[in-house]
């Protein structure tokens, strides 16, 4: 049986599958090589080191985001890209945590095209360079935060507590001491992360619209 030729793309795809199934802690050159059925040393023909591997799978996640049609309005393009990033991040929560910890960066031409498209949409909306940079960071922070919140429970078993946190809040919130929190608490407990992301994205885009109009 002829062994399939190993490529960087196949190495990164296998690494991403390993991380998705077992978490970032399970990723090592030895385990990845076993997954691919090759010797660990052969991986170094396609990735320089562990850092290059982490950057590569991070870039792979960014590259999965479809680029918008350049003829679309700037707000539609921003929403399309932000929603695409959110979808990609929620599919690969371990990669998002690595990104958030600044242990990896999306270093590839394909990933840069996604980032360039997002910045370009902000510039087309009328924002200057500084405002576009702030808008880009805000959008990435929103997608990171929403995806991380959505992945709660996937990072492992939480430490045991005698009382669930929701029950603790309900018991401890005092109508006299915390009247505002008491009023909003039922809504906080009922809204899921996906709903929050869409609402937060709408608020952020509305704010960008105001900034652009100035």
From TrEMBL:
One GO MF term: transcription cis-regulatory region binding
Keywords (A to Z) from UniProt: DNA-binding, Transcription, Transcription regulation
DNA-binding region(s) from the entry: 28-47
Keyword Secreted: no
Pfam families cross-referenced by the UniProt entry: TetR_C_1, TetR_N
GO biological process, one term: negative regulation of DNA-templated transcription
Location of the HTH tetR-type domain: 5-65
Name the UniProt record assigns to this protein: DNA-binding transcriptional regulator, AcrR family
